[in-house]
User: Which sequence fits this backbone?
C-alpha cells in the first residue's frame, strides 16, 4: 500500500465533471478521472440540485481510489422534497409542506449512517422530528401523531420494504390537504389583522376625543365662575 492523498470538493449532486475543482486536483495523481467522475455522479444522483461534500482518497502508487460522499443536512433534504428554500418562521402554525411517509423513508436512508439511529425506523422518526421543526406535516399529521403511528406498526410494511416513492395520487391528496390548511391559516391571519386595525382605530379615536372633552369641561368651569361675577356687577335697583 502506497502513499495516500485526499482530494476534497463540494459539487452539485450528479453533476461532477473533470473541470475544476476535481479535474486539476486529480490529474497529477495519475488516476482514471473519468471513472472517478462517473462513480461520484452515480453516488450523488439522489442529491440533484444540492451541494454535496465529496472526498476522494487516492493511493498514488497503486492508482486505486476510494470515494466518500457526504450528505446535505436533513433540513435541506426535506426542503428539496417540498420545493422550498427554508423552513417556516412559525412552524407550529404556518405549515409549508406535507410529505408522504415514503419521502421520510427516502431521506432517512440517505442520512442513516450519519444519524445516531439503530435502525431505519428510528432514522425515519428523526426525519419526522426535523420536518416538524420546519413546519412540514407528514401524512397530513404532526410529528407526535405520525411517530405514534410508527410505534404502533402502521408503517412497518413501507419501512421494511424501504419504499421511497409515493404514488402520484397520494402526493396530490397530501398537497390538497396542505392547501386547505394554508388557506385556513391565511383567513385566520387576515381576521386577526382586521381586528387589530379596528382596535388601533378605536384607540386613536378615543385619544382624539379626549382633548375635546377636556376643553368642554374647562369651558363649563370657566362659565360657572363668570356667572356669579356678572350677577355681582349688575346695578342695584
Assistant:
Amino acid at each position: 500500500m502506497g502513499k495516500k492523498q485526499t482530494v476534497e470538493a463540494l459539487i452539485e449532486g450528479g453533476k461532477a465533471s473533470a473541470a475544476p475543482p476535481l479535474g486539476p486536483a486529480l490529474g497529477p495523481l495519475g488516476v482514471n478521472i473519468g471513472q472517478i467522475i462517473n462513480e461520484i455522479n452515480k453516488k450523488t444522483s439522489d442529491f440533484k440540485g444540492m451541494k454535496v461534500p465529496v472526498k476522494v482518497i487516492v493511493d498514488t502508487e497503486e492508482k486505486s481510489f476510494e470515494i466518500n460522499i457526504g450528505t446535505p443536512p436533513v433540513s435541506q433534504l426535506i426542503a428539496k422534497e417540498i420545493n422550498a428554500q427554508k423552513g417556516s418562521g412559525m412552524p407550529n402554525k404556518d405549515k409549508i409542506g406535507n410529505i408522504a411517509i415514503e419521502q421520510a423513508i427516502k431521506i432517512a436512508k440517505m442520512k442513516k449512517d450519519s444519524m445516531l439511529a439503530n435502525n431505519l425506523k428510528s432514522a425515519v422518526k428523526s426525519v419526522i422530528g426535523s420536518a416538524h421543526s420546519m413546519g412540514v406535516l407528514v401524512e397530513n399529521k404532526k410529528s407526535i401523531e405520525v411517530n405514534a403511528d410508527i410505534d404502533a406498526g402502521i408503517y412497518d410494511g413501507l419501512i421494511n420494504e424501504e419504499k421511497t416513492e409515493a404514488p402520484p395520487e397520494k402526493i396530490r391528496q397530501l398537497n390538497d390537504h396542505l392547501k386547505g390548511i394554508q388557506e385556513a391559516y391565511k383567513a385566520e391571519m387576515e381576521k386577526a389583522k382586521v381586528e387589530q386595525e379596528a382596535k388601533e382605530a378605536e384607540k386613536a379615536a378615543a385619544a382624539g376625543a379626549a382633548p375635546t372633552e377636556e376643553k368642554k369641561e374647562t369651558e363649563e368651569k370657566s362659565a360657572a365662575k363668570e356667572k356669579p361675577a356678572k350677577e355681582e356687577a349688575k346695578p342695584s335697583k
User: Anything to note?
Assistant: The mean pLDDT is 89. The first helix runs from residue 22 to 26. Residues 78-188 form a domain with the Arc Repressor Mutant, subunit A fold (CATH 1.10.10.250).
